[in-house]
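Morning!

This is the sequence you dropped in the shared folder:
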Amino acid sequence: MEGINTDPEKIKQLLSHNVEELIVKESLEAKLKLGKKLRIKLGCDPSRPDLHLGHSIAIRKLREFQDLGHQVVFIIGDYTGMIGDPTGKSKTRNALTREEVAENAKSYLEQVGQILDLEKTELRYNSEWFAKLTFEEVLKLTGKFTVARILERDDFDKRLKSGTDIAVTEMLYPMMQAYDSIMVEADIEVGGTDQKFNLLAGRELQKKMGMAQQDVMTCPLLVGLDGVNKMSKSLDNYIGITEDANSMFGKIMSIGDDMIFYYFKLLTTKTPEELKTIEETLSDKNQNPRDLKVELAKAVIAIYHSPEEAVEAEQEFNRIFREKQKPTEIPEIKLTQKEYPILDLLTEAKMITSKSDGRRLIEQEGVRVNDEVQSDVQKNITVENGMVIQVGKRKFVKISVS
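The structure's back. Tokens below.
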């Protein structure tokens, strides 16, 4: 079929690079070789306003399908987002309102456009079909799933054993994601390894409704900046797709040395040969891993910004960390009072997430006011125009008093 690339090497790369599991590999490979235009589905719930680099792994796989000529279908889960995917959660999430979900969804198109060709992307909202279902239709749909099957999920099983509540809405989530596959007639669904249960639910529902079953591609999960947990905004261990270049550079430079190769592999366009060289360099004790972190940071920034901004971000980083200077541009915040308890000041300046976080930072000598280390959590600070507050190594804010 015209417009579909069936190059064996391209297909091999598509099915192997940053892919954890294929279900069913033989079926998917055969479809790709036939040259049929396939419909590739990925859904994201706008439970938070930003996408991060962890999301980028699956979205970049979509771009690979797109570059071969296939139809990418990106679903914004404005209905499923009100429930929140229970995957990996130890308790029921607080439900979001339709207004909150709609507000979060506004920026998704722009963010996805950093990776996908939007002119060739079919964008859907699952409210298109869920808002129209009658209760009778919902009952018929739920009848195609069993409680026993839903409770096979590892996270549900753990919560049951610990006596933690599971909301009925959470049990509906895999069914809703599966129904998305019905409505967009998905041939393939892509997602993280933690999504496997939901992706297989799509195959199961398609079979029960007499449709061809979608194949499933799972991608590895990206460990966050803490080096322990999956990248997540709720854990504040993330790098946003639309973060500015300076912030991206600083965050990547903060990762552990043991994560350098992993980030190169999952987040950049390095070839297998280049990755092998990076691995060998990391194993050489005479080489400084910092140089590779700089290369990594610049490679990532070049993808989401530009090579020129990557160079500028390196220069700015060196100004702050090597030369101990302040950033060339510091965000400014206006305050109305002349004096604040230091924890209130940090809160007003949006430099901390909580007062307990502020206490910890002060005790660790991580807070400076006009270059002076603050060690007293009870201290009152007299604010003045031009005062600079620094929290940690990368957060700066300039004060103006109105």
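Headline: The chain is about 45% helix and 15% strand.

More detail when I'm at my desk.
O.
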